[in-house]
Design brief:
The complex is a heterodimer. Chain A is α/β, with parallel strands linked by helices. Chain A has 14 helices and 17 strands. Chain B has a single domain, classed as Sufe protein. Chain: A (Alpha-Beta Complex). Classes of the chains: A alpha/beta, B alpha+beta. Chain B: InterPro entries: NIF_FeS_clus_asmbl_NifU_N.
Amino acid sequence: MSQLTQFDVLALRREFPILQQEVNGHRLAFLDSAASSQKPRHVIDCLEDYYRRYNANVHRGVYKLSEEATFAFERARGKVARFIGAASPREVVFTRNTTEALNLVAQSWGGANLKPGDRILLTLMEHHSNIVPWQMLAQRSGAVLDYIGLDGAGRLALEQLDQKLDERTKLVAVAHQSNVLGTINPVAQIAARAHAVGAVVVVDGAQSVPHMPVDVKNLGCDFLAFSGHKMCGPTGIGVLWGRRSLLEAMPPFLGGGSMIKVVELEQSSYADIPARFEAGTPAIGEAIALGEAIDFLDSIGMEAIFQHELELTSYALERLGAVEGLQLYGPDSATERGGSLSFTLEHVHPHDVASILDGVGVAVRAGHHCTQPLHRHLNVPATTRASFYIYNLPEEIDRLAAGLDKARKLFM
Amino acid sequence: MDDLYQQQIIEHARRPHNFGTLSEATISHEEYNPLCGDKVRIDLIIEDDVIIDVRFSGQGCAISQASASLLTDEIKGLSVNAAKEYQKDELLELIGIPLDKNPTRLRCALLSLKALKAGLYGVGNIHDEDL
């Protein structure tokens, strides 16, 4: 089935040292990249190279090592900007992860702009990181939360947009791709309608930026948040992209070193963007290694990655659809979704499914995947999720399906 | 994995003992595992300081259900003080599967004991370490 794949997956797998091992006596089939991806040798080496050869703080020293570290750190910012089509590297703020990026917008932009009675529009499929910061903002500001619901196939009920969007709506926050349902949301369409009422649009790109070509100009959003560790990069480094005009008008997030111009005893003036939002020593080596991860993804090509995952998803929909007693959530057409497949198996709790799969070397996630409101809506306490990335193979989906049959038989 | 799903666990998960609720419960306490969304509620009828009846309800994996099934068998007829003293190691021995290298599943196994002790002590929550 993989004739269409434009790159050699078996050769690519050799770049990932972790995939060369056995788990519980079986070759590791890692199907949990939606939680965190594996890292290629280039990225691991890049991180090590920084710590071994030019570890020094950035934007401070005048000595050689610090200059080299600063250059590499800022070059990584430039790579991120190019990767997502940002107008300037200054629109790229390094954070710890998607969660911190979303909290930054909620605290800084939200704190400065929301008043009692203003409305924040979210969707029922959001990750907790795109719900809780807005709840906290609503509690502080007196703004009101509202949610766009879902249709029976796990797509956004877009017809609700017109009734829920009005001039009181100040912010719309939506996932580009659901981490549970896999649904790819029509962000450009949502952004256009939100902008028509003057709302700011925040996109959680944690599940899209690693898997498909993403250009902020095409999305038409105002903020985009994503994490390095889901796109072959290290943990501890994430990105907030924001429109320059918005970022420039925003107050600081955390206070401390790097984010200031002049500090006096009673008050301070703040640095220009993006430094204004990057208090303290950043994750330097991790940012540089994220740049390396972007080079790695670019060398394969995001369109080719998207196509590869589309093929895997089509195959998985077919194979899982044939497993007796399996209920899949989210769109049943591969073209409407990415490679995150969540399901329940009759008579077997999702944790037991995941344990049994672990026993045959297949790593999947079980639980609510940080989407309790979505699971309440689906009326299940938990699901099992298999998710794919560049290094996955059709035969791993075969092993998943065989493991599910085994689980069913055990509990029959 | 095959160590985890021994026949006893599967049997208890399929046909748990003491499953249900008690409308006349003296003490009723529900414990929730936010990591996985599992819930276990324990209902107790206590007379003269003795647990004369017990039921559990909720939803969870085979390990949490089997553990609740085994635990409720154990504590029926115990004095309140003896139940308060019931040790997690006793329960783990009864469950009989190796969970020492599996902290996530250990939490599943201890959820019912947590519900029991929080109910008996009348506190909102007990840390796993204090069971």
